């Protein structure tokens, strides 16, 4: 269902999905877990299953076009393999991922930035009410107000601080899309910067720095072949930052005495051993575990559904032993094996298309989003609004997030 305004189309189905998902998430506390088949579970899964039906033509287009056929191949090959091995859970999770991704890919996404600003401010007001009238949110709204055992200087309007950091990062990205957007929403931009900085969600902060670096790099000058330059620079930047993270325990070991390094990357701690830094970093170890699971799987087709804590040979600490969902690409590789190449190709083709249209904002966002996928993959669950928002940005870039004015040439 779409509504025309100023020559652009607002996709109401996608917007309502995002709103509903955010409202459910703001009702989930920091330590709460969503139980399978609980009411909260169905409030998240239900819209992901049903809403694409309202745009069934667009969803099918998202599977059958020349670009999206990569997504169809991924779902068909990996799904058939795990169905043949009677892994219904793996097949159903895969179908949900493909179903929602196809919906976003085929929907000609249009979510007005002004609508996102209203949603962001509305969620902050709801968060304030939750903080005043309930004890659900352990975080404060101002530095120094948070419970000491949670980090007294951290702030959050979501009961789960990761959601505050990630949504504030996304708002930072869309509110700096071009000069007109910055001028139009200065208060919202200041608010999202405040929550991004003082939530101290390190992955979101590093992603923001990476994004600003790419914007600065693209602004340095004109290039004879912008399309190729934007594409390859975004790919190289994403690979480089992931390589640095993989080597981070060794790099941080020699730089931890610098206060800014300790604050941003080591939770304010100093004098740590390499092993202790490795435990804090966690992601390089996790990536290796996922790759090891993939390489040991039958036919390199992945293990399907599994409990991470039951299949790894070692763990860094008890808090990590039952997790493993923090990296989407490597988790998919461990679960579905070689067909994941088609999913990654689908994402890469999306970047190629943005580069073809010289959409340097979208290309600047690409490395930051890949970093999020590899470091905080749990937000990329297909029932999550963040999945829709970040994938819409990957696939449609500036076209997907217009204001109610003609797009500017930036």
Keywords:
410 residues, mainly alpha, two-stranded antiparallel ribbon, 20 helices, 65% helix, disordered C terminus
Describe this protein's structure.
The chain is mostly helical and about 400 residues long. It has 20 helices and two strands. A two-stranded antiparallel ribbon has the order 1-2. The protein is globular.
Secondary-structure blueprint of this entry?
Layout: E1 2-5, E2 8-11, H1 12-25, H2 39-54, H3 56-64, H4 69-84, H5 88-106, H6 113-133, H7 161-175, H8 179-184, H9 186-199, H10 202-218, H11 226-246, H12 248-255, H13 259-265, H14 274-281, H15 283-295, H16 308-311, H17 328-336, H18 340-356, H19 360-375, H20 385-400
Antiparallel strand pairs: 1-2
Helix pairs in contact: 1-2, 1-20, 3-5, 4-5, 4-18, 5-20, 6-7, 7-9, 7-10, 10-19, 11-18, 11-19, 12-14, 15-17, 18-20, 19-20
Category from helices, strands and their pairing: mainly alpha
- Low-pLDDT runs of 5+ residues are 1-7, 406-410
Q: Main β-sheet, in a few words?
A: 2 strands, antiparallel
Strand order of the largest sheet: 1-2
What is the 3D form? globular
Succession of helices and strands:
EEHHHHHHHHHHHHHHHHHHHH
Q: Compute the average pLDDT.
A: 87
Q: What is the helical fraction, as a range of percent?
A: 55-70%
Continuous helix count: 20
Q: What share of the residues does DSSP label as strand, in percent?
A: under 5%
By DSSP, the count of extended strands is 2
Q: End-to-end span in angstroms?
A: 31 Å
The rounded Rg comes to: 21 Å
